Structures are given as C-alpha cells and as structure tokens.
From TrEMBL:
It holds the Pfam family Lipase_GDSL. Transmembrane segments: none annotated. Keywords: Hydrolase, Lipid degradation, Lipid metabolism, Secreted, Signal. This is GDSL esterase/lipase At1g29670-like. Belongs to the 'GDSL' lipolytic enzyme family. InterPro entries: GDSL, GDSL_esterase/lipase, SGNH_hydro_sf. It is found in: Secreted. It comes from Spinacia oleracea (Spinach). PANTHER family: GDSL-LIKE LIPASE/ACYLHYDROLASE-RELATED (PTHR45650), SGNH HYDROLASE-TYPE ESTERASE DOMAIN-CONTAINING PROTEIN (PTHR45650:SF9). Residues 1-22 form the signal peptide. It comes from the Eukaryota.
Amino acid sequence: MGLLLVTIAILVASLELNMINGEPQVPCFFIFGDSLSDSGNNNNLVTLAKANFLPYGIDFPDGHTGRFTNGRTTVDIIGDHLGLNGYIKAFPIVKEEEIVGGVNYASGSAGIRAETGFQVGDRISMDEQMNNHKEIVSRISTSLGQNNSAAHLNKCLYSVNVGSNDWMFNYFLKAPQTSTPEAYAGTLITQLSDQLNTLYDLGARKVILFGLGPLGCLPLINIQGICSSYVNDVMDMYNIKLKSLADTFNTNHSDAKFIWINTLDIVSPNNLPRPWVEDNKCTLLWNISKYVLQSTQCSMY
Ligand SMILES: *[C@@H]1O[C@H](CO)[C@@H](O)[C@H](O)[C@H]1NC(C)=O
Ligand SMILES: *[C@@H]1O[C@H](CO)[C@@H](O)[C@H](O)[C@H]1NC(C)=O
Ligand SMILES: *[C@@H]1O[C@H](CO)[C@@H](O)[C@H](O)[C@H]1NC(C)=O
C-alpha cells in the first residue's frame, strides 16, 4: 500500500498551493470504507480483521491504533496535506467536541453489501456506517443549530473507499459464481449509489470516490508472484462503472463535486514494490502481507 499512499500524497500535494500557514483547507473530514481507511473501528468487535497490535503501527506516532498499516493510511496523509489538526478519530472513541471536525467510520473487512466479510466476524457495513453518520449529523445539528450545521456539513470533505472486500471477500469466494462480474458490479454500483444519495442528503457536497486497486496482485491470490489479469480486468470494468457513477452525481447535483480517483492506474501492477527481505522485525508479517508492510524498520533487497 506504500506506493499508493505516496502517489496519492503527491496528488493531494497540489491542494496545498493555496494553503495558508496553520489554516486547514477544509473544516472537517468524514471517512467511510474498509481497512484501507479504518483508524480503529474494529478494535472492540469480535472479528479476525483487527490491527490493534504490533507490528501494525510501528511507524505511526500513536502506535498500534487499529490502522491496517505500519504507518499512516491514505486518508491520514490526505488530512496531513489539508493541514488538519491531528488525525480523524474512529467513531467509537471520537470525543463530543471533536465530531464537528470529522469522524472515521471505516471498518476492516466491510463492504458495500451487508454480508461482505462475514467470514472473519463482525464489521460495520456501509449501510451501518451511514446510520452512524446520521447519528453524528444529528448531534452536530444539536450543537450548532440546524442552519449552521447544514452550512458546516456542506464545507466538509468526505472520503469513500470501499468495494475491495465485496470482490475479494464475497464475489470471488463463491464457487461457482452465481452472476457475471458485470451483473455483480451493477448491483454494487446501485447499492453504493443509494448510500451516496444518503450521504448527499446528509449534507455532503465534496466527495472523494476511490476506485479499486489491482486486487489481482494481492499476495493472497498471487501465491506464485504473478498478478491475476482476470481479476485486474474485472477491477477495470468495475472502476469504469464507478467513474460514471461519479459523473452522474456531478450531473444530477450541480452544487456538489464528486471526485473519482483512478487508483488502478496509480497503483499499476508494474509499479508494485519488490518483496521485502525477511528480517527479525518483519518476519512476523512476511507471509501474510509481504507487499503491504513497508516499514522504515524493514530492509529491502
Ligand atoms: C434557517 O434558515 C431558514 C431558511 O433560510 C430561515 O427561514 C430560518 O429562519 C433559519 N433559522 C434560524 C434559526 O436561523
Ligand atoms: C440522476 O438523475 C436521474 C434523472 O432524474 C435519475 O434517474 C438517476 O437515478 C439519478 N442518479 C443518481 C445517481 O442519483
Ligand atoms: C513463511 O512461509 C515459509 C514457506 O511457506 C515458511 O518456511 C516460513 O517459516 C514462514 N515464515 C513465518 C514467519 O511464518
């Protein structure tokens, strides 16, 4: 994931051009999705999809918070580039005075579909994340007053990075598959569209929609070290539908801006890093995430 983080960091660096020292570019940041964005929402759930132990977090200032990475997540890096004051807290631990600045609802193993990820235990699906956001919005409305709250929520940035698990932890696990990839992608897009409409109705006007990465290169399905072009082609097909969804939202809502991120292009399979050498610090995670863990404390050959 390191390369994705770095590349997106470069992308958002352009946002810094107008940045006044110490003044965040957005007053608030709300985060939805899966383990790519989770900042600790799974810590108290009964699930195997947890990351609140070492060596997760070995490069993060607050240690192992439940982030599924050695360091910052993509949304942490985006927040840093936007000049946010600290990282956005997970829903279960965010303090009342912090909610006005944003909340992170993302949950490892979760998906657009409710059943996605059930194999590893509890998770907070996108529909449940929307319900949690509804509750937060009503608390903000109580504290700021309805009109101020609406104006405030319009100015916030919203990140939606979800869908990987609907493929890897759902569709591709079913054998034989009960629908074509195209038909399944269509149902995901329809459901995500409902969720995004809910988000819009709750005041979101600046939304980042992340496309999916080259999941055919995940170590999990890539034992031989060769990416699955079948899986990556399916991701391509899905991402094109996701981009049109963003286009449709922009057409339908002239007061909103939906930005689609071409993750698959940014994280080109050809650009994936070479495996990390097993050493005493990194050996633990070597076999499950050799392409994911890019710690400054690991050495590379
Ligand atoms: C909220 O905005 C509406 C419509 O602009 C206005 O009629 C109403 O008086 C405002 N309420 C408050 C409490 O400011
Ligand atoms: C966009 O508007 C059209 C026409 O009103 C509607 O049929 C469609 O469902 C809308 N799409 C979204 C994603 O809201
Ligand atoms: C990783 O897998 C290899 C071969 O499958 C095995 O020999 C090695 O002990 C494993 N390393 C760890 C840390 O589990």
